Amino acid sequence: MALPYYYYFSFSFFLLVSIVTPHELSLVHSQDLFPLLSFKASADPRGVLRTWVGLNPCSGSWIGVKCYRSRVVAIYLDNSSLVGSATPLLLGLGQLRILSLRRNALNSTISLLTNLTNPNLRHLSLSHNQFSGTLNITLPSLLSFRAEHNNFFGGLEGLKLPKMKDLNISNNNFVGEISFGLSKFPRSSFEGNLALCGSPLSSCIDSLRLSNDSTNTSSSPNISSMTSASFCSSRSLTKFGITALLAIGIGDILVISISLAIVIGLYIWLRKKLLIPPSSTTSNLRVIESDRGYSEEKEKNGGLVCFEGGEELKLETLLKASAEVLGKGVSGSTYKAILDDGIIVAVKRLSALQFPSYGKNFDKHMHAIGRLRHSNVVSLRAYCNANGERLLVYDCMPKGSLQSLLHSTSNERRLRCRSLDWRRRKQILFGAANGLNYIHSFPVRPLLVHANIKPSNILIDEHGNACISECGLMRFAASTNTQYFVPSFPSNLFYEASSAWHGHRPAPELSGRRGTATQESDVYSFGMVLLEVVRDHKDVEESSGGDGECEGEVMGMAKVGMLCTAERPEDRPKMSQVVRMISEFL
Ligand SMILES: Nc1ncnc2c1ncn2[C@@H]1O[C@H](COP(=O)(O)OP(=O)(O)OP(=O)(O)O)[C@@H](O)[C@H]1O
């Protein structure tokens, strides 16, 4: 049975007080410490929060915790295997602005949230959990609330969110009428509930009519008809005569026909008018889901389109932030920017030469990438594609890239032997494979392709996890010919991979033309990275006189690389299979 969260709070407080001396207690850096430790004690059976140790949650090493002036202001713990009912502890943090707990197995109710309890809360993401209970949230400050795919129930009258810009409560058990204040959100925000009605869903009268119909045709009435009947408007269908029903039917048919004609007309117009290069019509740019109007968003944020976790970013602040160059690549330059509130981001300024205007296709792609959230993928928090400026704002990965680990200067080489041992290499390869597999299986149509897998796009986060960066960007570059130049197929890939292939290593099928990258060509490039890591390990072993302890594993891993780099795309494994194969060596 799940214990109440205050039990864990008292327990960890007791634990803390009993293991630290009064002097150490005086070193407690933040009043947020106890709730966080209590949450960890309750919600983290798999040890994902292993870095939550010590007395200072704002030390920078606590995974998912962001601070400002020694107070916790944001928590990002998506996909973290968290369980149980301790979420209210996090909601109790006095300065919290952003809480993101998507895709866990958390299951508490969410008690009353008001200006008194959470005056600073701006963004709350609880989607894909098992939260339940009714919602009572009266927070004028809240800008986004994502709670889709949970077990919340009851009516929506407890939601008073006047400034809300982004709402999704779909796929819960809500019933009743959608209030006027919430009806500005799209259908997708409400679909999949037990019995919601009213704009933007069908009117409560229509729902009542449907439920009456189903009651008439079925001898045993179902839950939804009963709940609709009890929660929606009580006006009776008998008020409508047959003529009115006929009129509604004809009206519906007319509206559907007109909409169809408009959609078909638009489609033909777009095909004729838009100057989309032929390669991009077959590429990853066509149908990517989004519920928003891009231009509208850009205007609101002064040209910056923000995604989850980047809602507080402003173009003005970014441009004013103190910045340091992290590196320069074919696609542009990347800077580390320290914002006013101490938050650090990596800003990539795309080269105007490489990225001429692609308008909405670029925007659509960025919207899909902005939804990627995984511990092995660098999160895109915002981007700007306005006034000739193309900026991508990512989480800053403080430990550099696989490129820098592999190609450190000779002075650093001795140090690297110790830090990049075989175990670390396996972990990095596994993390990168996991991230690429997530990208490949992300539910958008057409499926995503990275198109530029190489060591400098595999970054290392503060906990040493490998994270894939820059998904799909090179597909928009004006000249990818140099990138995609492929020499004749090497006879011994294992050894070829060791030669100075520091950049992207494209698949042979992309040779000699501006090829369209595919998931199979991503697997090839990943295989080349893997072989490079393995080959580098062998070099280091040889030069340092190592004992070749893991020889069997090294050869096994090289075989995975050979499979990935099969000449024919159809002979290469899927990334999910690559993940499984690498995991056998962990
Ligand atoms: N999110 C990030 N956090 C920290 N460092 C980063 C981040 N993104 C990039 N970098 C650093 O900046 C360097 C330059 O990256 P950039 O993406 O601009 O070029 P590249 O990857 O070398 O080439 P390309 O332009 O083909 O992607 C990288 O090697 C990496 O060390």
UniProtKB/TrEMBL annotation:
ATP binds at K348. Keywords: ATP-binding, Cell membrane, Leucine-rich repeat, Membrane, Nucleotide-binding, Repeat, Transmembrane, Transmembrane helix. Gene3D superfamilies: Phosphorylase Kinase, domain 1, Ribonuclease Inhibitor, Transferase(Phosphotransferase) domain 1. GO terms for cellular component: plasma membrane. Residues 320-586 form the Protein kinase domain. The chain crosses the membrane at residues 6-28, 244-270. It is a single-pass membrane protein. This is Probable leucine-rich repeat receptor-like protein kinase At1g68400.
